[in-house]
């Protein structure tokens, strides 16, 4: 099917990324998988490639563009190769929007040049043990010192993607207690230097999927955060978090669609090569019908993901539309990848085959960024229900 979402620049970028993956990632990916993370120096290679600076203003070393289409190409190409770029997606998709939206001119001068090169990797710390999707229930606190020069940060976070290698983490913390009328009141955002005294990384979490993406528990014990590292206004953190949820959910939706598309490719190649009862598996009608049904679902998900991408770039992607795209694309990917694994038979259960890793990687898409159930609630509310 002909797509109109990408132009010649995006396709040239695609060729560059595909060659980079083949040369720099595929040969060592099994080592990353076994280690449970990509090496820290890999992110500096991504910085050299220019991936981190696409949406960063030129004055700070970036390309000065304002689009998510290059990120979309990255989703498609990493999925096509059956690899992940570690925790780097959080650096660009989650952290950068907050820096661009909230950082002062001085903060941007301090943060963005090192952000672009990968010298400083960023992560986002919202979730706490026991709170899950209930961000307003967070207990981490940041109290202003008596002399007004710094905040004292105490608390813990969990499920922090990129948390092991991060040099700075955007931490959500309470600067004021919630009120009886508003549980969301009093949350602020801080760009915390991970080298600060009292900052510690707990367990590197052992996940079902996304094995090369480091995910950690974080703890803060009397961490001093300079007032110069407060992002935006004190107490307005919850509204800031809501502002960027649409782009985060688009990213999950598009990534899920790309995984589903890759799964069909892996299954098609496998059934054409694999022989049973003297015939290629692709010869049997059931195989053809299964792959045809999967392709139809992928075509539909691609249309939804592309439409959401265009709306996001135009600044018109509403929370309900983002929720709808995430719900649809992640549910499609779940069904498609499961059916494509089934066509691999027993080999589909082996981690040496990309379909097995894809199956595990995909499962979290219906959980993080807001569960499928929360997406349904958002959509229902937009319908007036």
UniProtKB/TrEMBL annotation:
Protein name from the UniProt record: Acyl-CoA dehydrogenase family protein
Protein family (similarity comment): Belongs to the acyl-CoA dehydrogenase family.
Cofactor (UniProt): FAD
GO MF annotation terms: oxidoreductase activity
Documented EC number(s): 1.-.-.-
Keywords, in A-Z order: FAD, Flavoprotein, Oxidoreductase
Source organism per UniProt: Streptomyces flavochromogenes
Gene3D superfamilies: Acyl-CoA dehydrogenase/oxidase, N-terminal domain (1.10.540.10), Butyryl-CoA Dehydrogenase, subunit A, domain 2 (2.40.110.10), Butyryl-CoA Dehydrogenase, subunit A, domain 3 (1.20.140.10)
Leader peptide range in chain numbering: none
Pfam families given in the database record: Acyl-CoA_dh_1, Acyl-CoA_dh_M, Acyl-CoA_dh_N
Top-level taxon of the source organism: Bacteria
Entry-linked InterPro entries: Acyl-CoA_DH_CS (IPR006089), Acyl-CoA_Oxase/DH_mid-dom (IPR006091), Acyl-CoA_Oxase/DH_mid-dom_sf (IPR046373), AcylCo_DH-like_C (IPR036250), AcylCo_DH/oxidase_C (IPR009075), AcylCoA_DH/ox_N (IPR013786), AcylCoA_DH/ox_N_sf (IPR037069), AcylCoA_DH/oxidase_NM_dom_sf (IPR009100)
Keyword field contains Flavoprotein: yes
Domain Acyl-CoA dehydrogenase/oxidase N-terminal: 7-119
Principal EC category: oxidoreductase
